[in-house]
């Protein structure tokens, strides 16, 4: 896929993997719009547009899509990247009230973004939805019951949506990276944080896959 002049929307794009992805798309000539619920875009590189939007609020994501369509006339690629995490704890010690927030962001944030992007992509009869999930959405992990549950849900949604649009000029790609050194772990860094992947490595893998004539539709990125 040639990424030049492609209109790309990235949720959770003001920091971490989303910010690095935005730079990768920009380097390949894409027109990039990122959103963040905090609306902090001070360090965005010129050429990247920042819009304040909370992925758990469907109306805010609708407004984001409307702005992109008004400004550029289309949406080529929509990347559902926004995600949150809980510190690893046994089930008895897990804060299950906060786990509801995990589902709101990690699942429903992905659902709302996909649904709204797909509505536009059906009108234009082309487009790509990229859902950044996690290897925690493929395999259960000790002390990650809540996080894995939210990511398994996102995996099921992504795989089902891919089948729903199969045969059309719209594709759905699931990306499953292992742990990365990002602000996701600001609250409590895992003991093996230093061993986690550089988000630049992950972003390059994702974009390089898209540059292929036939991108892999389930991309698993493990630690080197």
UniProtKB/TrEMBL annotation:
InterPro entries: NAD(P)-bd_dom_sf, Sc_DH/Rdtase_CS, SDR_fam
Coiled coil ranges: none
Molecular functions per Gene Ontology: oxidoreductase activity
Assigned keywords, A-Z: Oxidoreductase
Gene Ontology CC annotations of this record: membrane
Transmembrane segments: none
A Pfam family per the record: adh_short
Family: Belongs to the short-chain dehydrogenases/reductases (SDR) family.
Name used for this protein in its record: Short-chain dehydrogenase
Species of provenance: Candidatus Nomurabacteria bacterium RIFOXYA2_FULL_42_12
Upper taxonomic lineage: Bacteria, Candidatus Nomuraibacteriota
